[in-house]
Amino acid sequence: MLSAVHLAILVELGTHATKYDNKLSKNCSSDPIQVFANHSSYLDASVQCSNDGGRLASIHNAFTNALIQDLAEKADTMVWLGLRCPDENAKNCRWDDGQGAPDQYSAFYPGYPSGIAECVFMMIDGAPSGKWVTGDCNNMLIGFVCEVEAKASCGDYDHYGDYCYKGYNQTLPQIDAESQCQNECGHLVSIHSVDENQMILDRYTGNVNFVRVGLQTNGKMFAWSDNTTFDYNNIGYSSSTIGECIALSAIDDVVSRGEWMSVSCTQQLPFICKREGDCFKSTTPEVTTPVTLAPLTCSSPYSMDQNGTFYSPGFPNSYHNSKACYYILTVEQEKVVQLHFAYLQLSQSSSIGLFNSITDSTPFMNITTSVSSSQYFTSTSNVMKMIFVAGSDGDGINRWEANFSPKENVITTSPMVTITPSPTNPSGCNQNSVAPINITSPNYPRNYPALMQCRYQLTTDSKHRQVRDMVTMGDQGKSYSGYV
What we know:
Elements: E1 5-10, E2 18-20, E3 33-36, H1 42-51, E4 55-56, H2 62-75, E5 79-84, E6 94-95, E7 119-122, E8 132-135, E9 143-149, E10 158-160, E11 163-172, H3 174-183, E12 187-188, H4 194-202, E13 210-217, E14 221-224, E15 235-237, E16 245-249, E17 260-263, E18 269-275, E19 294-295, E20 302-305, E21 308-311, E22 325-330, E23 335-345, E24 351-355, E25 365-367, E26 377-378, E27 383-389, E28 399-408, E29 417-419, E30 431-434, E31 437-439, E32 456-459
Parallel strand pairs: 1-3, 5-9, 15-17, 20-22, 29-31, 30-32
Antiparallel strand pairs: 1-9, 2-3, 4-9, 5-6, 5-7, 7-8, 10-11, 11-18, 12-18, 13-14, 13-16, 14-19, 16-17, 21-28, 22-27, 23-26, 23-28, 24-25, 24-27
Domain CUB: 298-407
Domain C-type lectin: 41-138, 160-274
InterPro entries: C-type_lectin-like (IPR001304), C-type_lectin-like/link_sf (IPR016186), CTDL_fold (IPR016187), CUB_dom (IPR000859), Snaclec (IPR050976), Sperma_CUB_dom_sf (IPR035914)
């Protein structure tokens, strides 16, 4: 845990920024808390904080809450916090800093979280001032609080930008190299710019051919082992038949020097680790969250099984390519697909079509505007096809985060019907019937004549099979006791 924390409140105050000098404690840096002029949605606020090297603020004690309340009141704006709540149970809320639910400290106003809106902000007026409520993540434009962690020294790592790096000439397979980096509070390196790529390349001149990095692929999507966004692409050659891991080439070979190419994950290669600040070991084991694969392009359908979270290309940045993106979501047989959007922003003429199967050509739902995160869409089969098309509005915003999971397929059946002879068919023979149904012999429970022939056509829908239980039948020429 890094010791020093700075806060910056960003709010709209006309056309200028107002600065407030304040220290969180006597141990903190003297950097001021700054008030900036830009109201934003929750997602835009999160992006701005990330661009400034931080994140939306978390509050774990009354002192920090009071500090943010004081500055927000001076700036006369409500502010987004780094907290999201998927429902009305506060124990299910999660801080952006990975500290889990707000169990240690909470300042929710009575009745919140509401379960209707998901993103949390702080009120500033009247009795609710300093209290937390939930609001519309996409459509509310208010101030926000950024938390920027002060970077500690890099120890035996080399400092570059906001991160620390260390190269190893020792050769290891992917899983062992990642484990080595995690033991030193980092991950295999992720690369997010031309400059960062060049800095890494400059470390390896003439002594190695390829350097292992933290990028992996399933053939369709790519993900960094540190869970950062795949926002810089320098792949010169990619082939899942060669391997699912990626290395940086330090020579002109299959690809040019500095480009990336596919390698086997078991191949022994030098590697480089990346981390934030020095490494202070904690007695609490780190919980590793699953890697989220960020789509590289929309050149082919993305297939996902059972459940998961997926994003628009380049999320949280806006996507404007007019090429349609296809997603195939599959759950186990006898269940259906349930989907909802944690975030959804679509510009004019953009759309998301949801289809009941992979072969359907007509969507059961065509989404062209924002929908509530509490609204769920359900297919009628175990496969849902989703097609995302970004509109031609270059200034509009197109980005979303979607979650899908299996749901029990509840089939509503009609009550059982018993067929009895009608005036137009007094014998009760020659019936066309659709399940579920009971049929009886003519004149049941009385006997019916020998050698009488009756035809019954029994039908059920395509999802079911017929089960017939015929009981108490007699022989030809004798008296029949009937059947049910």
